Amino acid sequence: MNQEFIEALNEIEKEKGISKDIIFDALEQALVSSYKKNYGTSQNVIVKMDRETGEIKLFAYKNIVEEVENPEIEISLEDAKKIDINFKLGDNYTKEIHPKNFGRIAAQTAKQVVIQRIKDAERDVIFEDFTKKERELLTGLVQRSNHGNVYVDLGKTEGILLPNEQIKGESYKHGDRYKMLLLEVKKSSKGPQVILSRSHPDLIKRLFELEVPEINEGIVEIYSISREAGSRTKIAVFSLDPEVDPLGACVGYKGQRVNAIVDELSNEKIDIVIYQKDPQEFIANSLSPSKVEKVFINEDDKSALAIVPDYQLSLAIGKEGQNVRLAAKLTGWKIDIKSMSQYEEYLEEENITEEELEKRFSEKKESDLSESDSLDSYDNSNEENSEDLEVEKNEDTLKSNENIEEVSDNNINNEITEDFENDIESNDID
Hints:
By secondary structure, this protein is α+β, with helices and mostly antiparallel strands. Helix content is 35%, strand content 25%.
């Protein structure tokens, strides 16, 4: 019987990843409680189980004192020396005991305790396992939906996709398989709660790491990501190797790599732009697919003025301001947009040159930026007001072709020689 018990523990350890020592400790504690309960004693008892054979031994121990007050847990020094002359005050006297029917009674009492301990241990193993995978990519099978929550089978446990972590417009049906970001693991009374996400920007990062070997190997790196899940994403990349084109690496042959990501995201549009150390070039790239003629910047308040051709004003702003909004998130700059005709009219009205405007803008305070009524802008530092963005409509403007392979026409310098953060944390790109 003992050998069968050890073999059963080995199977539990192998299948569930629960150490045998945890079960042995649980059994020993349960047997002690069982003995005290069934024999109505207040004795100090300990149970020892042999880890190799499964043999169980029960011991009662007493403290050696000068004068006995509780004979259940104490023994006098005089009586202890009769047993062993080497005993002294403060030692413990231990004696093995053999209660009748102890095995049967203990098994009945300890059964539920051990089962619960195994469940708790299994939950702890799952919690630790999934905690190590936070912000990693997982593939799950949709099980069911309830009150807007989607429950996903992850193998060892079940994950939950909350409504605000879902991609708008996606329908999650039983049996559908999706790649998801493991956002967070929480402890609860029912076990670990695994929170998943399909809308987090880090999902884009992990998908590109999966599809683009150059990113996975660290040759091409992601600088930042801005995303409006289900609609559009902008991602800024750069190459550490001058001979590797970061844009080409991410797009792949005939768009195979990026198209695989687009398919996984239910045709969410993705703009890939090149990160540049020069903020003027980076801001111009970020407004892709619109062409940018000039960019004026103010380093103090991180604001920029981009000048675009008249026919591309609406393209630069995007539908409901989406393009400039995502560009502002991507770069971390407040971006104002002006058409070329508005720009020229302003120069004429103010009777200033381009150089004077550049100087004036660089010295301009943030509070002065709202003075120009002809300026269309998006403030990245005040995202909650983004819905109030007023966009000038130009009937002659070409509609944006938001094809994934469109990129900026600007002359791009791919060489980046200074080190900076390799990974952008989620709070930088949300």
